[in-house]
Amino acid sequence: MSNHTIRTGIIFGTDTGNTEDIANRISEQLKQYDIEADIHNISDTSPEQFSHYDLLILGIPTWDFGGIQGDWDDFESALQPLDLTRQVIALYGLGDQFGYGDYFVDAMGWLYNHLKHSGAQFVGYWPTSGYEFDASLATLEDGRLFCGLAIDEDQQFELTDERVNRWVSQIVSEHRQWADDMAEAG
Ligand SMILES: Cc1cc2nc3c(=O)[nH]c(=O)nc-3n(C[C@H](O)[C@H](O)[C@H](O)COP(=O)(O)O)c2cc1C
User: Fold this and answer.
1) Domains identified in the chain and CATH numbers
2) Most C-beta atoms within 10 A of its C-beta, which of 95, 140, 172, 175?
3) Domain Flavodoxin-like, which positions (predicted)?
């Protein structure tokens, strides 16, 4: 599959704009790989729109001690029935590891748990090294990985561009690998 034909949607929720800003930065980076993404706010997105895309990049911040950003929370009942067997999903989550170190990017874990039985293939797991926190619902593999990219605009904003760039390269290559495997399997 050439990159031109990867239909890519970035869907985010936000309270104060950071997660939207990261959606824009991810979209800019994707252009380096000839991928033009559509960007949607989850508050204006219907469940049907999820199936329009081959690659879904979903962004969610955590609020109020492990709470789910409001527009994603409103979408909860629509998440569980989604059939995403043809889709590849990459998650990113925003949080504050020093301010909320017992709940760091918890909402990304919530989103992962709601979608992990949707049939989608997940890409973009991300190492927890380089972050300092006590607990997070978004970790896998004995705490070695996050289920997606963790971004901390409050405490580590200076690391964000490099993280976004590396992660975008990772998800593009993992998506390519998945597409090759699918083609081989017929
Ligand atoms: C009142 C308040 C509660 C927060 N609760 C959490 C939390 O439980 N876990 C976390 O990782 N970050 C928490 N944060 C940090 C936000 O997730 C972070 O600022 C994020 O960048 C906001 O994204 P947004 O601008 O897209 O809404 C909290 C921030 C505030 C101000």
Assistant:
1) 3-185 (3.40.50.360)
2) 95
3) 8-172
Contact 51, 87 (CB under 8 A): yes
**Model confidence pLDDT, tens digit, residues 9-20:** 999 999 999 999
Quote the tokens at residue 122.
């997940």
Give the residue whose CA is nearest to atom 8 of ligand 1: 65
Q: Are 127 and 93 in contact (CB under 8 A)?
A: no
pLDDT higher than 80, residue 174: yes
CA separation for the pair 77, 152 (Å, rounded): 28
pLDDT digits (tens, 9 = 90+) for 55-71: 999 999 999 999 999 99
Give me ligand 1 centre to Cα 104, in Å. 9
Ligand 1 pocket member 14 (CB < 6 A): yes
